[in-house]
Design a protein that fits this description.
It is built from 8 helices and 13 strands. It is α/β, with parallel strands linked by helices. The strands form 2 sheets. The chain has a 7-stranded mixed β-sheet with strand order 2-3-4-5-6-7-8. A 6-stranded mixed β-sheet has the order 1-9-10-11-12-13, covered by helices on one side. Strand 9 and strand 10 form a beta hairpin. The longest helix has 22 residues. It holds the Pfam family Lactamase_B. InterPro entries: Metallo-B-lactamas, NDM-1-like, RibonucZ/Hydroxyglut_hydro. Belongs to the metallo-beta-lactamase superfamily. Class-B beta-lactamase family. This is Beta-lactamase domain protein.
Length: 316
């Protein structure tokens, strides 16, 4: 692995955005130890809402010899402040770096809370994520979260990654080595996975979800399946999904199985001449083991449509 300190880019200091006043504090969620010195705060399952105040991902933090590294701090300044409260229950060491797995704002807009403490905090992300934030993706997420939470995320500003990392890069933070894996167009085209070898710990971002489904509009089934395969081959034994419970290798295996079955069934029925609408009942039947996952009914039709277009495009 080559050492990569990244490309230092201009900070985004745009905050608060689309906010009049400030939303209420996010209630505390417990930090659960998943490996030595490593903790995950599991957010509630489902999409951003008034009830969850926009907090529904899995922030993680790693306590090193002289500081703390936070991965995917959440969706708002309020979420980030809640994460900071949980860190303080574990250690008094400073937060020395942030890592953002991908461009979807429910994972990184909470950077704001840590930039309030240290405006120059190193914040890592994929170059394509940085580019998309420059192009307005952060503004879109600010507006979306404001609408879905009815203003609970108000007061949140845009603080994008300022250090670029790519597939195969490795950085040492707080005395701990972090390795970055990237698969072209998985859940999106911005997705990093973060492997911490000394802890056999993998943060998967939204390349894997557990007991919950999300959108696939920005990604591909083929790329997502390949990214999961890469993560499972890393040697990790503990896997943190972007949403849902942390666990062993069964966590990525289950989500990969869902993606693979759906794509294979869509390809089979497309070859038989069925439209996405016509094949839906048959595909849903093949996915019966996943029917109780949160948002299965809301997302499976969209997933079939995305896979249909993907497989169809490969025919030409």
């Amino acid at each position: 692995m080559r050492q990569m300190l990244g490309l230092l880019l201009a900070f985004f200091v745009v905050g608060p955005v689309l906010a009049e006043g400030r939303g209420p504090a996010v209630r505390d969620y417990p930090a659960v130890k998943v490996a030595d010195g490593a903790y995950v705060i599991q957010g509630p399952l489902g999409h951003p809402s008034v009830e969850n105040q926009g907090f529904m991902n899995n922030p993680g933090f790693i306590v090193g010899k002289d500081g703390v590294v936070v991965i995917d701090p959440g969706s708002s300044v309020q979420s980030g402040e809640m994460v900071m409260r949980q860190i303080r229950k574990v250690t008094d060491l400073p937060v020395v770096a942030l890592i953002d797995t991908h461009v979807h704002g429910d994972h990184w807009l909470a950077n704001h809370a840590f930039h309030q403490i240290n405006p120059k905090i190193p914040t890592y992300g994929h170059p394509k994520m940085i580019e998309k934030v420059e192009q307005g993706e952060g503004d879109s997420w600010i507006a979306l979260l404001k609408r879905l939470t009815e203003g609970a995320t108000d007061g949140t500003g845009i603080y994008a990654p300022n250090l670029a990392v790519r597939h195969g890069d490795e950085v040492e933070l707080a005395g701990i080595k972090f390795q970055f894996l990237y698969g072209e167009k998985a859940h999106s085209d911005t997705d990093l996975m973060v492997f911490i070898p000394e802890k056999s710990l993998m943060f998967l971002g939204d390349n894997v979800m557990n007991n919950r489904f999300g959108r696939m509009d920005n990604g591909t089934f083929k790329g997502n399946i390949a990214a999961i395969e890469m993560a499972m081959a890393s040697g990790a034994t503990v896997f943190v999904p972007g949403h849902g419970p942390t666990g062993d290798i069964a966590v990525p295996q289950a989500f990969q199985r869902y993606l693979s079955i759906l794509r294979e069934e869509v390809a089979k029925y497309l070859d038989e001449g069925l439209s996405d609408f016509e094949m839906k009942p048959k595909v849903v039947e093949a996915l019966a083991e996943f029917k109780d996952w949160v948002d299965f009914n809301a997302e499976v039709g969209r997933h079939i449509s995305v896979a249909y277009l993907e497989v169809e495009a490969e025919m030409f």
